[in-house]
Write a structure and sequence with these properties.
By secondary structure, the protein is of the alpha/beta class. It contains 13 helices and 14 strands.
Amino acid sequence: MTDMSSPPVSPRSRRDFVRRAGGLALGGLAGRAGLGLGLAGLAALSSRASRSANPGGGYRALVCLFMLGGNDAHNWFVPIDPAEHAAYAAARGDLALPLAALQSPAGLVQDGRRFGTPAELAPLMRWYEQGRAAVVANVGPLVRPLTRAEFLAERDVPAKLFSHNDQVSTWQSLSPEGARAGWGGRIADLLMAANAQPLFTAVSAAGNAVFLSGRDVVQYQIGANGAARVRALDERWVTGSSTVGALLRETLVTAGDHPMAGEYARVMARSIAAEGVLSSAFGRVSVPPIPATPILGGAPLPTGSPATLDVDPLARQLSVVAQMIAAAPALGLQRQVFMVSLGAFDTHANQLRDHPVLTARVALSIDYFMGALQSLGLLDAVTLFTASDFGRTLVSNGDGSDHGWGAHHVVLGGGVRGGQIHGRFPVVATGTPDDVGSGRLLPGLSVVELAAQFGGWMGLSPAEQAEVLPGLSAFGQRMAPLMTA
């Protein structure tokens, strides 16, 4: 089996970059203006970044919504023509959604074949009907275009299929677990020089993610309430003392004699400085509040699921991303790549109970995010796409579905050629040329091809896309344009 490996990253160059980046942030602590200049100096550390310092086209942001566990998209987009639905129902068994339970969004058609969606997906699909969202059919990791016979002969098959950790990494980096750079981070490497504050080029609201790791870019992590800060530096925490906060700050950023202490001080200084800049920028923008919408119409929810959207972790992640996008002009940002996530999609059991709730949470959160961007006049500047470990088996295991391969995803935003299905939607049955076993889909489109569409929209040249996405040349020009210019 062939591994889709990312370009090697020099450990020494990474350490040198962290050392110098920390020094810049430390120098910026002298004042807000100094901080801005210090962070801007990060761009000079990358010779590649300077090539895309003026990508043009105004501000643009790419947002990855990762569904951890493997979303069962077989129950997101369902054939509704009688003969095809009968084949789907025969294969799905107890997991099949009945025709009466499916809605038929306008335009969800390909080559005369009609598709429906569950009611829980309706808030998302209204953007499809408005031409602001598209469906990408049967996409997944590939080394090159592959046939079922080649898969069975194990010719150029992606490494470690059906493994959660490895396929999460492969979707995000094009390599199995252990990859050190993701394709989102590599895009950010080339575009960070366009930003006055390069530290805010690659931003995760979902914790550390290989998707946003690059050679040069520093992955910045934010929480649902905004920039992370040292709690002990909060004025309320040191009430009663006018000196404790200042003394603690001085202690945290003092390098000391040990190399590890010096590195800690540099990272801490950068964190404190960045939090100050970001919190100030957030204080000058306002985004619509998350509505207290019931997530599933009052139906019983699985243990631990939020009942209303305003307390949903995914909605809160998207809210803080919208806040950062709104603050981009004040921060001097032209290009950003974001990551948000939602877990619990590993539906081996209780699928008919849990999956509708997860679907509703995704659809309502995206609908809120898109509406917030639209109210801010920023919808055309942002593209959001869904991703997941892998698809699921079409065949039921009795109470759920097992690990698959290809899956259907959605892409939303003003730059999307929406209201249509991109890629060939497979015949939904077992024993087809697209079935590698139990209804696991052999992908018709690769993650690399999808990523190239986003890279081009963000401003990368064809040569830069090839640099960011090793193996892209194996696919030629198979995928029709997904994005507008």
